[in-house]
């Protein structure tokens, strides 16, 4: 069964999506990736371009594929844009999830579905800090309710800040991209960072994909799995690490205009119970990211 | 200002909607009612037929009317149907509200908006009992967040079980309709009731409309107003009251197959602070309901 399991990955061309496609395709799963834009290719994987905020499009995909597993990574992920286009955040995160769950339910499909929340969700009783937080919180609430009301095989996850080689817009990628770019011209990598003392739990994207794999196999329906490295690191630490990986002196200008959003530490308890632990060291992730951008520069 | 205030009432042809149209139109407000089906007329009121789950339709109405006040009564209100069509509940209650709020926000319109929740919302930490509960809870959450994130003039309300003359499908109307129908043929009014001991807070629809009026004038932005009579009455009491209003003996068969949903008592504190209190006695509401159906029968 495992060898021929059919898996639908939404957001297949994103940072986590590409890594997940590669992981499950290597294991012999039949992977179909849903991507937003036409013309995107992913090696070894069937690709369908689709706007998941259109109900008919979602229905057509699920009816055709009838997947055993669904990894729902697609979404609208910018906090900044959510202020201008809150509707796009709600439609992209809540409505797309509703259409997905409803189609699976009405088809009596027994798919195990992984819903991917965010560390930026707000806690019960708190006020959300931005529309993006509203959209991710409602997305996960909806999934929890559908699991409970309709007894569907849905598992919730909340990954932390994901890093690693690939098309990411995270801070670790931005710094590496600047270093690789300046290395070519023997310039000075220089960056503006909001708050060097702000702490984040960084986890390699390959580790989170291994967690999704374990959850598909052994995760408990209705449960929420927080997934992180368990270590909070300041952005200053990130810069220090990179400084040891390049010969150029990195110039950082710190902006303290906005205070950054404080994030709670990750509660890894549930995912540890499945036997998961991160295997990529923080340093090796940064090395791989820098290598990814150095290679991209060479290929340009 | 008050005399020429422009008011948009969505769900204008519904039970509360018709009563609200009449109330505000009599006060000299310029009332526009949005209704679902074409061909519906409401005396003294401009009527627009529109599907509020279509974004463009909502935008067109708000752009044309630019209302000073919006009473958002429209929605999909059946608990029973929400099991078969949860999508319709979410679209009809959450999405329509999102489109309404977003259109007002993007137009920089300063409308005071009343959002109408339900006694069947679930409490934080509890599990919802049906998809309808999910939809009403999310609707009110969304309104609370938009008030807070975008500083909009939104007030939340949670009315209890509304009764009174007019097209209602509530238990008080069902009993009265059966009595009026049997009075014509000298038959025996007979009803199946799930649980005679189940208690509800019944409030006359005319009293709730007076509360909405007060909230438009003096309500506090961002606040939640629960609105009820403050008295819990069993369905057995309702039957006893009706028995005193008809000469026919009422036959009740009690079904105890499903236990009915227990509802908490209403916390009227916030609305009492505005100087509101219910003026219709429970008995006079029942008399008016029975009169409404006796009259309808005569007119048939």
Automatic annotation (TrEMBL), chains A, B:
<dbReference type="Pfam" id="PF01370">
    <property type="entry name" value="Epimerase"/>
</dbReference>
<protein>
    <recommendedName>
        <fullName>NAD-dependent epimerase/dehydratase domain-containing protein</fullName>
    </recommendedName>
</protein>
<feature type="domain" description="NAD-dependent epimerase/dehydratase">
    <location>
        <begin position="8"/>
        <end position="228"/>
    </location>
</feature>
<comment type="similarity">
    <text>Belongs to the NAD(P)-dependent epimerase/dehydratase family.</text>
</comment>
<dbReference type="InterPro" id="IPR036291">
    <property type="entry name" value="NAD(P)-bd_dom_sf"/>
</dbReference>
<dbReference type="InterPro" id="IPR001509">
    <property type="entry name" value="Epimerase_deHydtase"/>
</dbReference>
